[in-house]
Structure formats: C-alpha cells, structure tokens
Write a structure and sequence with these properties.
The chain contains twelve helices and ten strands. It is an alpha/beta fold. An eight-stranded parallel barrel has the order 1-2-3-4-5-6-7-8, surrounded by four helices. The protein has a two-stranded antiparallel sheet with strand order 9-10.
C-alpha cells in the first residue's frame, strides 16, 4: 500500500543509506533525470550495490531507469533486475509498445538469472501522447501495476507554464485516474515541487486524493509525513467503515433489503468505500492520522 513515494538521486550514497528511515512507503531510486550522462555508470553500480547489501525493510524499492530512446536503459536493467527490485519505473512512456519493449527485455534478464517472480512495471506518463494513450498503457502488460503522472515534463510538452494550482494538468490528472481505475491498477500523482510550501503541498495532495489518486510522489523527505497523512484514513473514517460493515452484516442476517446508518441510506458504493477504508487501515497495521 503506497501513499508516498520519495524520489532519491541514484548517485547520492548518503540518501541511499538513510532511505529506509525517511517514512515513505516507497523510495524511487532515480537513474534518469537526477544523474548526468557521465555519472550513469557509477550511479547504476551504486544503486545495484545498495539493493544487494542494504536491507530496506520499511519501504518498497522502485528503480527509475533511463528511457528507451537512450543507450542506458538496457544497462540499467542488466544490473538492477538480478537484485530483484520491487518495481521498475519506465520514463517517457508514450504507448503500449514502449512498455512491451521494456517488459520483453526484463523477461530476458529474469530468464538469464533464473528469476521466477515477474518484476512489476510502473510507466511514467509525461507527454501529451502518453496521456491520450493512458488506458492503452495501463492495460499493455500484466507487469503494469500502476501508472504515474509526470507533471514537469508534461507541461513542457504541452507548452504551458507549470503552476502550483495545477489547472494546466487538470485534464491529464483526470484522464490518468480514469484509465487506471478502468484497468484496475494504482495511479500516482506528480510531486509538488515547492519544498518550503507545506500548506500548498497539503492542498495539492487533498485535491489529488479527491480526484481518485492512490498516492503521491514527493521530492523531499520533508513532504513525506504530509502526504502520508492526507492519503491515510482518519480514525473517524475507519470507525465509520467498520460501522457500515457491521450494519450490513446485521441487515443480511435479518433479511432486510435496505438499511440506514446515522440517517443515511447505506448503498453499494458506500459499502465499497468502507471496504476500501478497512483494507487500507489493515495494510497500515491499524495506523491512522487525525
């Protein structure tokens, strides 16, 4: 269960050592934008060794490889896949074919190293073409477990200014959520890039949650707690969810077709939201915020 995903430069040894203690549900070790071309080889080896020798118990590990239009991405996978990361993030995905190219190569590396469990893939959608093909990308391969919106590159491709309010990516956000839910996979929102604006981060996170995003990426450890708080059910929400499930159980036992709770009729969507809340609460080990 991911609420927050923290981007970390793949060439920063200090951050790699402390990644497990920063509170994020997932860490994204970045071999792409955070690493200059002349440092690609050393960063790749550093990340490989981190996966090999460091025991990340408290967070999921995602590796952002280089895009398939570079000379680096196969080298990334050759080093990283044998270390069995939780997921590979593929940047600049425009269509289903892009995903399948990476999936096929991952499969060949897994076969070479006798790895039986398929490595999951998270396409990073950050172009107009990618947004328009979001559902096709989400359904492109069984390895795809989530899609991710990259707002900075997307706005450059759209030829518009990236703003804190985010009106310029409203359509793209909605399109991504619909595509992911139709494909029955998770969907993650782009980072809020002003590290010092906690109030803005919270508003942006609440807006993303309201649209239906599963969670949100961050670029600073300072943002992890706020994102976790927004995307976690509150104590009141958890208690209400259990009340819903209990009253539905009673209604079934009594043969009632309709039931109300706190003056509101309990219908199928409310029951489903209650089930999701309880599922998230249990995945968090009973943790709640608020």
């Amino acid at each position: 269960m991911r609420r927050s995903m923290l981007f970390m430069p793949g060439n920063n040894a200090g951050m790699l050592l402390n990644a497990d203690a920063l509170g994020a549900d997932s860490i994204i070790l970045d071999l792409e934008d955070a690493v200059s071309p002349k440092e690609k080889d050393s960063a790749r080896i550093l990340v490989r060794n981190a996966l090999k020798f460091l025991n990340y118990r408290n967070c999921e590990v995602i590796i952002r490889i280089n895009s398939i239009d570079t000379e680096f991405w196969k080298h990334d996978l050759n080093e990283i896949i044998p270390m069995k990361p939780d997921m590979i993030m593929v940047p600049k995905v425009n269509c289903a074919k892009d995903v399948q190219i990476v999936a096929d190569y991952i499969q060949s590396v897994e076969k070479m190293h006798n790895i039986e469990k398929p490595t999951a893939i998270m396409p990073l959608i950050e172009t107009a073409m990618g947004v328009e093909n979001a559902f096709e990308i989400a359904k492109s391969c069984e390895r795809v477990k989530a899609i991710f919106l990259g707002g900075e590159d997307l706005t450059a491709d759209l030829r518009c200014k990236r703003t804190k309010k985010g009106d310029e990516i409203f359509y793209s956000r909605g399109r991504m959520v619909v595509a992911a839910r139709a494909a029955n996979i998770a969907v993650y929102d782009t980072p809020f890039t002003d590290v010092k604006d906690e109030a803005g981060l919270k508003l942006d996170s609440e807006f993303a949650k309201g649209l239906g995003f599963t969670g949100k990426a961050v670029i600073s450890p300072r943002h992890v707690m706020s994102v976790n708080e927004v995307f976690s059910p509150s104590k009141e929400e958890i208690e209400y969810a259990y009340e819903v499930m209990e009253i539905i159980k009673v209604a079934k036992e009594q043969g009632k077709g309709a039931i109300s709770l706190r003056g509101k009729m309990i219908d199928a969507p409310i029951v489903e939201r209650a089930r999701q809340t309880i599922e998230m609460s249990e995945a968090m080990g009973g943790e709640f915020y608020g």
